[in-house]
User: Fold this.
Amino acid sequence: MQVFTSVIVLAIFFMAYIFTDIRDYKERKVKSVTSLAHVIGINSVSTILFEDNEAAKDILAGLKNVAPEIVRADILDKHNNFFAGYLRPGAANPDTLLIKYLKEPVFKDTLLFVGDNIMNNDELIGRVSLVVELSELSALKKSKSEMAAILLIAALCISFLIALAVQPYISKRLLYLVNAIKRVGQTGNYDIPIIDNGKDEISVLVRTFNNLMKEVNESQQRKDEFIGIASHELKTPLTSIKGYLDLLNVMEDKEPNKQCVQKALESTHKLEKLIKDLLDVSKIQSGQLQLNISRFNMVELLDETIAAIQMVARTHSITREDDHEDQMISADKEKIEQVLINLLSNAVKYSAPESKVIVSSKNNGTELVIKIRDYGIGVPEDELNQIFGRFYRTKNSSVHISGLGLGLYICRDIILRHKGRIWAEKETKGSSFYFALPVGVYAEM
Ligand code: ADP
Assistant:
């Protein structure tokens, strides 16, 4: 854009330069031809007074050697009749009418028509008229245009080279900004400002972006604080409600009262899970989620968790499809159980009744990979990574199935704290969720 603008400005500048140069040349030419006409006029006074047009013709004929660019010269008497004339040999006869009635200098094609009065003691006795061929003008126009074109091309090349040299610097900074924005989008980490030491529009953009991120970060922190406080405050009364309901459940044996108490207890469990998730998220945000590492048998934990989920999800069939008996691992058992419960509950929640959920484990030497395969609604390909984000829910599930979009975020944090990996894959029907935990020497890294 800058190259284009500078070329346009240069072109305008050159056009103005050529125009003034040609105008100066014309003014100079008019002056010199008028002076010549004046000299011829002075020399011709006696020829007019004595009506000696042969002598006048001789004066004009002398122009052939003195000023070969003169095409035609005429002396007219005071009645504007031709008195004597000269036409350069071989030249075409110019416009006679224009010569006769010429009042001021006229440029016509490549010819200049100039006239001057012949005076004798302040009395007008005739006029001299000269027609000059401006062969230099076209040469001048040609040479100036050529020079302008060469300079313009040179300027264009130089600006292009400068732009080429500067562009990587600008593109580099823009790409850096774009990558930083992408990183913020992926990690949700708003508190790393982008550093740019420039003083141009890009640095204004960077500063605006940094300010925006600062505001988002502050409002995120306020939101996190609120979630932390609110879930903490909800936890105490809920524990007491749950305690009373447990008591009522034991004391009450009449129907339908007992059924009502059990329904209320079920809802309390759901609320409890929700509050626990919110508290976990606040702990993750404030870096307070601690691991309590112990050595345990993962296969046992898988079987226990499957059995526990199967108890509440009677409509689905959850099975483990591998023949491992022992898979010892060093990890936080409670947190890994929380991950398993989350993934299995999701597999049940996002698939139709009667469908199956298959759990399997595989030790590849460095990692123990757990796979939970379901035949439910599945996760769209483009959302496979996003579902591990905080409060993220896929478009196809968010409307019909309740949830906060926190479970996978917590699972991801727990697994990453174990230096493991967690991911999801789309299947022809349903989806598979994986998590991998380091085993053996790799677990110590
Ligand atoms: P929640 O289930 O409370 O919404 P999660 O963090 O556990 O939150 O899951 C995030 C989103 O990922 C869910 O809202 C859902 O859209 C999608 N999801 C998770 N597990 C599955 C699954 N097994 N099948 C299809 N979608 C799933």
